[in-house]
Amino acid sequence: MTQPKPLNNLVLVDRASNPNTSEGGIVLPSTDEPQQSYGTVLDVGDKVTAPVKTGDTVLFSRYSGTEVSFQGKLFVLMREEELLATV
């Protein structure tokens, strides 16, 4: 599957999904769940100076970036300044 290539100082992130079941096996409803504030870096733009690379897990604010749907898959495209930390 192809994915968008971020330009300049943008980073393409695959946001982590919320779990569907609890540790005890109870199915959790998907309504009113806040989205996860971390994800995996899929690609970085050519002008990114932050020490992140493809495959890194990064933390970011809940409302950071722009959600982009491409070929049926949701991505988050954000500026490198919006990244808070690597894990």
TrEMBL record:
Belongs to the GroES chaperonin family. The keyword Chaperone applies. SUPFAM superfamilies: GroES-like (SSF50129). Gene3D superfamilies: GroES chaperonin. The lineage of its organism: Bacteria, Pseudomonadati, Pseudomonadota, Gammaproteobacteria, Oceanospirillales. Keywords: Chaperone. It comes from Endozoicomonas gorgoniicola. CDD domains: cpn10. It holds the Pfam family Cpn10. Together with the chaperonin GroEL, plays an essential role in assisting protein folding. The GroEL-GroES system forms a nano-cage that allows encapsulation of the non-native substrate proteins and provides a physical environment optimized to promote and accelerate protein folding. GroES binds to the apical surface of the GroEL ring, thereby capping the opening of the GroEL channel. Heptamer of 7 subunits arranged in a ring. It comes from the Bacteria. This is 10 kDa chaperonin.
